[in-house]
Structure formats: structure tokens, C-alpha cells
Amino acid sequence: MSSIVEKRFIEELASFLNKRVKVVTDEGEIEGTLLAVDPALNVVLEVKGETTTRVIYSSKMIRRIMLLEELFDLKALADRLNKVFPNMVKLREDIGAIIVMDKIKITKSGVVEGTGPSAEKAKQVYEAYLQELKSKKE
Questions:
Q1: Do 8 and 47 belong to one domain?
Q2: Distance between CA 11 and CA 37 in Å, rounded?
Q3: Distances, alpha carbon 71 to alpha carbons 1, 17, 55, 74, 107, in Å
Q4: How many domains does the chain contain in total?
């Protein structure tokens, strides 16, 4: 059981990589892009100011790491795709992808595999979903 829990924790932590985070330490707070993290939870942040710097924080100092970016909801996108491609959509959270018609692969980055009219339609649904997310933020 603990290996499943550890694996899930590592997957969640990995989802923070290359995203904007706020790190709360004993000395205060700092925002930046999480570049790396090790099993002991030491982190490397890229902090932009007048210059861009990279800072390594020891896990002994860290109290919290908070994700500042909105997570991409693959399930919501899969539900939309299922309306266009009924019963032909598989959500694969384990690989962070949606598979349509066993030949089109969609991730948070867009349509990454597949061609033709079906892939184009899937791309349109993806882009409409992104546009809706963007308008909700504004």
C-alpha cells in the first residue's frame, strides 16, 4: 500500500514541475518556477526579477509548496470529447492523456497523435475548451 501512496505523491509533485509555485519557508515566501525537486523535497526554483536567478531551497526550511497555476482538467475535456465522439473516448489519467477512437491522443498540450478529419475535430474541441478556460480567468 505504501508504494502506491508514494507513487501517487511523486506523480502529484511531478505535476508541479515547470509551473509557477509559491514556496513558504522559515524565512518568508518566494514565487518562481519549480525546476527540480529531489526525494528529500529539496527544490530548485527559477525566480524572475530584474535578473533571472536559480535558487536551491533545503527541505529543512520549506513549510509549504503551493501551485499558483490552474490545473488542466482532463476529465472535463474528455466529457466534452465524448459528446462529439460518443463511447469512443478513453481518459487515461495514468499517462495524462485522452485517447479518442483508439488513434487520437490528446494531452494538456493538445492533439499529439493522430491525423485526419477526426483529429481536426478533436483539435477544435480542445481549442474551444482552452478558450473557455481563458475567458473564465478574465
A1: yes
A2: 12
A3: 27, 12, 24, 9, 13
A4: 2
All three cell numbers of 122, joined, read 478533436
If asked whether residues 82 and 60 sit together in one domain, one would say: no
Query: What percent of the chain shows pLDDT beyond 70?
Result: 97
What is the C-alpha to C-alpha distance for residues 99 and 79, in angstroms, rounded to an integer?
12
Q: What is the CATH number of the domain that holds 55?
A: 2.30.30.100
**pTM of this prediction?**
0.57
Q: What values do phi and psi take at 123, rounded to 5? A: -65, -40
**Long-range interactions of 1-7: CB distance < 8 A, separation 24+:** none
Q: Rounded distance, CA 135 to CA 25, Å?
A: 34
HSE-up of residue 110 (Cα within 13 Å, Cβ side):
10
pLDDT tens, position by position, 113-130: 999 999 999 999 999 998
What whole-number distance in Å separates Cα of residue 111 and Cα of residue 130?
A: 13
Q: Are residues 46 and 78 in the same domain?
A: no
